[in-house]
Write a structure and sequence with these properties.
Layout lengths: L5 E6 L2 H10 L4 E7 L2 E6 L5 E6 L9 E4 L3 H10 L6 E6 L2 E7 L5 E5 L1 H11 L1
Parallel strand pairs: 1-4, 5-8
Antiparallel strand pairs: 2-3, 3-4, 6-7, 7-8
Length: about 120
């Protein structure tokens, strides 16, 4: 069996990225190193993002996190002042909401029920 376990991301400011991923998404710190600056933050399934600081270039990718209910998660985060790129809606990748992390990456939120309902309406 093959299972993705870690993903390394180059970030512009490791402290700012760590704070965002832990306070906004609720990831927990798995490990920290100062030389070189590296922080591992993990989700409930033990998938780890390895944040490495790079002043030259950041990783160009989008991240998608599954949540229990995208509408409830959106409402809860928005009520705390978290800004969204877009709220729950149909997208080219399915159905969900989008945030922007401190380095400008799309961080999508989706849930299985909303995704299934959206894709069955598209069929």
């Amino acid at each position: 069996m093959l299972k993705l376990d870690h993903l390394a991301l180059k970030v512009g400011d490791i402290g700012r990225a760590q704070a965002w991923y832990t306070s906004v998404l609720g990831l927990t710190v798995e490990f920290e190193s100062t030389d070189p600056p590296v922080v591992g933050v993990k989700d409930e399934s033990d998938f780890t993002l390895i944040l490495t600081e790079s002043r030259d270039a950041v990783s160009d990718c989008s991240l998608f996190f599954q949540v229990a209910d995208v509408a409830v998660t959106h409402q809860g985060l928005a009520s705390k002042g978290v800004e969204f790129r877009y709220g729950p809606q149909g997208n080219d990748w399915g159905y969900g909401a989008g945030l922007t992390d401190p380095d400008g990456r799309l961080v999508g939120l989706w849930d299985e029920a909303s995704m299934q309902a959206h894709t069955s309406q598209q069929a």
